[in-house]
Amino acid sequence: MVKDTTELHEKALELLEQRGVQLKDIAELVMFLQQPYINGLTLEFCLEHVEAVLKKREVQNTILTGIQLDILAETKQLMNPLLDIIVDDEGLYGIDEILALSIVNVYGSIGFTNYGYIDKIKPGILGKLNKHEGNQVHTFLDDIIGAIAAAAASRLAHTQPEKSRITQ
Q: H/E element holding 139?
């Protein structure tokens, strides 16, 4: 049984690293989302917001659940047709996005637009994860990483209203 959030947090970070995701990769996505709106934004500042999002227990639970499902699919330990659906990352499946939305909800409605945008264009680490190179399955992980970035970008925007600007 998990006694405190420290153990859960450390396991979530360990799993992200094992799956090829560095916190800097997520911070770069936050930078991508918020740089047009916040003058003087730095990668270090984005990383602070990523780390804050990752401290949320519901985020940690989502990471563990999604990565476990990806690993079960990789090792063919799911029944069909679910196995094929997850391995193929079928567009109409949608449960991977639903799981990710539990993270997006943490910081308000701006997270939905950030998530939808970044999920559609898949910049940076999201594009790499979405390729499913080798035998790796990242059906859940790519959406979770996009959601963490969207939540961190939302958190950042909410804490920096004086630096925000509207561009057209």
A: none
Give the DSSP letter string of 94-131.
-HHHHHHHHHHGGG-THHHHHHHHHHHH--THHHHHHT
Does 31 map to a domain? no
pTM: 0.93
Three-state DSSP class for residue 162: coil
Q: Which residues constitute the domain of residue 72?
A: 46-159
Distances in whole angstroms, Cα of residue 68 to Cα of each of 15, 46, 61, 77, 122: 9, 27, 11, 11, 22
What are the tokens at 68? 């476990």
Distance, CA of 28 to CA of 17 (rounded, Å): 16
Please give the Cα distance from 18 to 67 (Å, whole number): 10
For residue 33, is it within any domain? Answer: no
- Domain CATH number, residue 87: 1.10.3760.10
> How many distinct structural domains can be found in the chain?
1
Q: CA torsion sign, 43 to 48 to 155 to 20?
A: positive
Block means of pLDDT (10 residues each) for the chain, length 168 residues? 80 98 98 93 97 97 98 98 96 95 89 94 96 89 98 91 52
| Residue position matching structure tokens 């970044």 | 118
In angstroms, how far is the first alpha carbon of the chain from the final one?
51
